[in-house]
Amino acid sequence: xxxxxxxxxxxxxxxxxxxxxxxxxxxxxxxxxxxxxxxxxxxxxxxxxxxxxxxxxxxxxxxxxxxxxxxxxxxxxxxxxxxxxxxxxxxxxxxxxxxxxxxxxxxxxxxxxxxxxxxxxxxxxxxxxxxxxxxxxxxxxxxxxxxxxxxxxxxxxxxxxxxxxxxxxxxxxxxxxxxxxxx
Length: 183
Description:
Blueprint: H1 3-19, H2 27-33, H3 35-55, H4 57-73, H5 75-100, E1 112-118, E2 122-128, H6 135-140, H7 142-148, E3 153-158, E4 165-171, H8 174-182
Antiparallel strand pairs: 1-2, 2-4, 3-4
């Protein structure tokens, strides 16, 4: 993207910001966005109390401590848990980055985060662009999205068959990214 195109995109984004405020998400959307945190905050204590009532406190506490210890000691489990934590964080940061970069349609809706998975190089995020947003909008804001995700690089690519589906690769390990691009 040339400097002139970037300037034109910023001017256009500024005009859109003056006219289109970001729409606040509804209650169901908020529950979907925060589903993992809600499950941890509400589901974990309920499951713990149920298990304690069924099996007794001591076995449940020992099982929980064993689970935590296995995650801390076993590198594969630690890597998987840390990858899922980063995925939850990245999904929130991508949504915040879309709002800050004014990547939204005329109704003020940002692209929907469909799925986030951990990869060797970082995270891969699938976004569904609503009518009025494109992969080019996200490509133009790649630097801002990288900054929001605390990553050195963010790569944006459109799906070859479905133009509304966009894949955002949040690259945290550039060497692993280069190795995965070769294969």
